[in-house]
Amino acid sequence: MIRKSTRMLRSYFHLFFGPAFRLTSRFPEAFEICKEFRIGREKMLQIANALTKEIQLGLARETHPQAIVKCFLTYIQDLPTGRERGKFMALDLGGTNFRCLLVNLTDGAVMQSTLKSFAISEELMQGPGTDLFDFIAECLAGFCKEQNIGNDRIPLGFTFSFPLQQIGINKGILRRWTKGFRCEGVEGKDVVELLQSAIDRRGDVNVKIVAILNDSTSTLVSCAYSHPDCRIGLIVGTGVNACYVEQTSKAEMLDGYESSQKPIMIINTELGAFGDNGSLDSVRTVYDKTLDIESVNPGSQTLEKCVSGMYLGEVVRHILLDLMRMGVLFRGMRPDEMQTKWIFRTRFISEIESDPPEVFHNARVVLYHLGIKTDDLNDMACLRYICDSISLRSAQLTSCAIVAMINQMNVESCTVAIDGGLCRYHPHYRNLIEQQMSILLKNASAYKIVLSEDGSGLGAALVAAAFANK
Q: Where are the transmembrane segments (predicted)?
């Protein structure tokens, strides 16, 4: 007798690939593995409610020190007004590259925007913090000279997308590195001071860092520029994080929160750590646990490791290795390339899922890159199904996070700004989020999902404009 879960998996498979392939009979092992990545509605509701409670613990002064989801203050209590004007810079550091952005605002309108990206080497990611910030300052100085603003005093907003405890709008303490960074001498330090010192040591540019924020906050601010009802900023890229607009009266970590004249405060949840206390153990698989052990930060950033682009490809690689060891996939081929950790990039998932139904051009190219030469359409359909399963769980957990923040704000409608590699390049990710939210919310259509355009850059520039003279 076929169990209900297996019937659901079969229906899902036929929906995407048609009846030409019968993977339930040819690859039952793959179906059994992928089953472990599916989360039912009741479990999703439990996760969303648990996260809402964790947010409340992070907001409260008494429980904040022990909270897993820290809910740090951003000190941003105003959204864009449309009256911003002048030249402002943004520096966006959040992964294996960083970006410099120059924005010219006139009465709130973006008249001109110039962007340049710089790659960060593995050596810089693992070396001393002074080397990293000196490199950033060098690139920033070169960008300023190219734009002929080397002598101008330019306010800069610094988007720093790592767990950060802000103690002011331009003061931020790095709690811990994530995303593969391990630079010594930075954790526990004010990263604004470290970067400003590197800039000042050069003496060839007149840039002043007036604000620091993370990419989710910058995304929210950028989207609020054109969608005034934006209340949530979400990043699902190399890492995962979210921020939302809270009532200042609930932001107990702010001195004088009860008497503040500003009604709102953007809260940086740092929700990537959700689950570090075991609250996600019921949806974690043996593959998640193996990945965690092999990561540079075992036992931390649990949600991020189940959701974000840095990790999803590695989960797929471990599943494929198991199936190949069983001799049921790719005719038992075990190329050396597949033994290399992290070689299965998350972008491969997006590419594989971009093929039309029953077409496997991208899958064939990805497999060739990994040393697997096959024309077996069943093998490639199985690969795509595995990718679909990993993507869906990521979207399910992301939807739980959005619903948790909606519950906390208790709003009947709002715009949710999203950005990051998965949101931007995965062919179905946004639709999956909307689909899963409709399962969790009775009035899901009242919550609009908007892909933010260069949120982490423009948002930082807008915040710099707001605080340039403060």
A: none
Per residue, the 3-state secondary structure of 287-347, as one string, reads HHHHHHHHCCCCCCCHHHHHHCCCCHHHHHHHHHHHHHHCCCCHHHCCCHHHHCCCCCCHH
- C-beta of residue 241 within 8 angstroms of C-beta of residue 233: no
**C-alpha to C-alpha distance for 204 and 144, rounded to whole angstroms:** 10
From 92, 134, 190, 215, the catalytic residue: 215
99 among known catalytic residues: yes
Mind listing the pLDDT tens digit for each residue in 370-405?
A: 999 998 998 999 999 999 999 999 999 999 999 999
- Closest-CA residue to 224 (of 196, 243, 249): 243
| Long-range contacts of the stretch 337-345 (C-beta < 8 A, 24+) | 337/369, 337/370, 337/371, 338/370, 338/371, 338/372, 341/294, 341/314, 341/317, 342/313, 342/314, 342/317, 343/317, 343/370, 344/313, 344/314, 344/316, 344/317, 344/320, 344/370, 345/313
Question: Which residue among 92, 134, 161, 379 is the active-site one?
Answer: 161
Q: Is 108 left (phi over 0), alpha (psi -120 to 50) or beta?
A: left
Catalytic site residue 215? yes
How many whole angstroms separate alpha carbon 470 and alpha carbon 440? 42
Q: Please count the residues of the chain.
A: 470
Cα–Cα distance, 190 to 186 (Å, whole number): 8
From the candidates 99, 345, 364, 430, give the one annotated as an active-site residue. Answer: 99
| Model confidence pLDDT, tens digit, residues 257-302 | 999 999 999 999 999 999 999 999 999 999 999 999 999 889 999 9
Q: Cβ(170)–Cβ(212) under 8 Å?
A: yes
Burial class (CB in 10 A: 0-12, 13-18, 19+), 236: buried
Helix H or strand E encompassing 286 = helix 286-294
- The pLDDT confidence band at residue 7, using thresholds 50, 70 and 90, is very low
Number of domains in the chain: 1
Is the residue at 90 inside a domain? yes
| Domain residue limits at 166 | 79-225+453-465
Task: Record the pTM.
Answer: 0.89
- Is 161 part of the annotated catalytic residue set? yes
CATH code, 174: 3.30.420.40
- Cα(188)–Cα(175) distance, rounded to whole angstroms? 6
Helix (H, G, I), strand (E, B) or coil at 265: strand
Report how far residue 397's alpha carbon sits from residue 402's, in angstroms, rounded to the nearest whole number. 9
Query: Has residue 13 been placed in a domain?
Result: no
Looking at the domain assignment, is residue 356 inside a domain?
no
Q: Does 351 fall in a domain?
A: no
